[in-house]
Amino acid sequence: TDLSEPYSVFTYRYFLNAWPYLCILAMDEGVCVATIVGKHDITKKGVRRGYIAMLVVDKHYRRKGLGSKLINMIIERMAEANCAQVVLETEVTNTSAVRLYENLGFVKD
């Protein structure tokens, strides 16, 4: 799947080592068809904040609710880690992603 902002393997290792419970794969017959990667940190105001760094769904699996399911799963895990906020970023030109995030309650900053 094409990524708007491809990461290096070292970035993936960083997330996997530090926050393995926030790195989720969706598999179909042994093939990864979607993934979501996140982390959490403490803001300058002392608030624990979750950050969704990446969501990718194979083009053949889009518009089937898989992205929403992964986002809800990672938000639940972030809540279990006592995150009071969840933030993410996407390109404004990625209208499908913007619509998905807005439908899930995210607001533009």
UniProtKB/TrEMBL annotation:
Residues 1-109 form the N-acetyltransferase domain. The chain crosses the membrane at residues 18-38. Signal peptide: none annotated. One of its GO terms (cellular component) is NatC complex. It comes from the Eukaryota. InterPro entries: Acyl_CoA_acyltransferase, GNAT_dom, NAA30-like. One of its GO terms (molecular function) is protein-N-terminal amino-acid acetyltransferase activity. Keywords: Acyltransferase, Membrane, Transferase, Transmembrane, Transmembrane helix. Belongs to the acetyltransferase family. MAK3 subfamily. This is N-acetyltransferase domain-containing protein. It comes from Spongospora subterranea. The lineage of its organism: Eukaryota, Sar, Rhizaria, Endomyxa, Phytomyxea.
